[in-house]
Amino acid sequence: MTARLWTLAVRFGPWLVAVLILAQVLPALDARDLWYSDEVRYAEAYSNLIGQGKWAVLELNGAVYPDKPPVYFLLLAAIHFLTGLEVTQTLFLGSAVSAILLAGAMARLGAVVGLTAEERLAGLLTWIGGLGVMLLLHYVRMDLLFVAFMLLGQAFLHDHVINRKPAGAALAGFACLGLAVLTKGPLGAAIPLVALVATALWAGEGRRLASGAMALGVLVMLAVLGLWVAAVIGVEGWAFFAEQIIGQQVVARAVDTFHHSEPVYYYIVVLPFLILPWTGFATALPLRQALSQRRRLADRRRARHPVDMLGLGALAGFVLLSSLDGKVGVYLLPVLCLLHMVLGAALMQSSLRSGRVASALLAALLAVALAVFGTPYAAEAGATWATILGTLLLLAMAATLVVPATPGPRVLALGGIGTLLGLVLATGLLPILSGYASPRPLAERLMAEAAQGAAPMTYRTYSGVFTYYAGRDLPEYADADSLLQAITAPGPAVIVTPRKHWEGLALDGFDVLEERGILGGRGDYLIVRERP
């Protein structure tokens, strides 16, 4: 019976993964509020796009928002047009649609490098069961769509350069890279191209990187980018494009990022956590065997083994990301996708008993951590069921890794357990954090005071994280002089501000109405109101 299920699953592999993604996302579209700070900023920018047509250069709190290109937000607009969902639901469904597109891109890349259908499905099933991907699936970010375009472009380019497919593959690949850049920025082209160079040199196809088709493909990518560049310059002018887009969003983020600046070893520390519970499979790496077979290296290069192609691509991307000044854990997503495809191939080819046992121990450890540390918060929120189910599912995952089973049914069971765990996460565990991570309570209290005649404003904080739930733009003051001038206007002022900055002002005549911490917000926030 299990063998028949596995055969059926392989036949409809990408469709099965799409169903598993939707099964855990659709019931949770209204499960929680949007969080600080990406989710609420994206919601506001998207609202301005569909409400005011601000798509070429996004708008946030009444000002231009050049941080992000428009493709992700245009996808959200298309979802809204097709479904009629409200903003929050559209954003969460956008994550599901992006994840489905990414799963398809992973399957395509796996196919062109030579993975079997069984290996591709195994990789996708471990992918949706990994902790890092599971969390991202239930969070509002554009990275899933970003990496989908990247890997699809990489697949087309690999097909042209290494599999010697016609020029159309190169043109399609560079068009996808152009869309990736218009989703989140230049890394959308840089990471796939670095991976392509590494694999092409390994396979002895370096000369094909300089073919006429590749040059024409670059022109196609530039043409895709040029459509947006022309729109930006038409709306905001050349000076804005040169200073804000090229200077601040491209150059500064690569070489001098104060906000996310991390040491070169940052991703070495982060990667093992993002790939949990599969981190234990590192114990099964055949390092000794690889070192003993150095003399057979030339034969292996000629064989163009799929694991080599994917592993080299992951390594090249990892090195590139580590060399940049700005580092965030989610930037490793393209590397994670390739590693999961490698893991899927390995699981179908060998027992990996030591890796399965180690990963089972990690899953059991996660279960204990959830039960011990999550239960008090869940009980307070009336969601103890979520920690109980989550703990049981993690233990079931651990058991599935170690009980005797054939590889296919084992990974199919792991994918099913991962889907149920994602559903519990989205509907029970993550909503517990809304009271700690969402700026909604502060924004709504601010607007309640505004309804009574107070003038709402922010001090020394980014107004854009409050405007979506406030339902209006908020004046933002970055220094004491401008704030003092604002509060001299007739009528009382009501201000949301980080406590550490408010205490430095030592202003009299204000009452603290509310104090609340925001997870990720670097300290407590106050709402203060001027006395009549």
TrEMBL record:
Coiled coil: none annotated. Keywords: Cell membrane, Glycosyltransferase, Membrane, Transferase, Transmembrane, Transmembrane helix. Its main location: membrane. It is a multi-pass membrane protein. GO terms for biological process: lipopolysaccharide biosynthetic process; response to iron(III) ion. The chain crosses the membrane at residues 12-29, 92-115, 121-137, 168-201, 213-233, 264-287, 307-324, 330-348, 360-379, 385-404, 411-433. Its EC number is 2.4.2.43. GO terms for cellular component: plasma membrane. One of its GO terms (molecular function) is 4-amino-4-deoxy-L-arabinose transferase activity. It comes from the Bacteria. It is found in: Cell membrane. This is Undecaprenyl phosphate-alpha-4-amino-4-deoxy-L-arabinose arabinosyl transferase. It comes from Roseisalinus antarcticus.
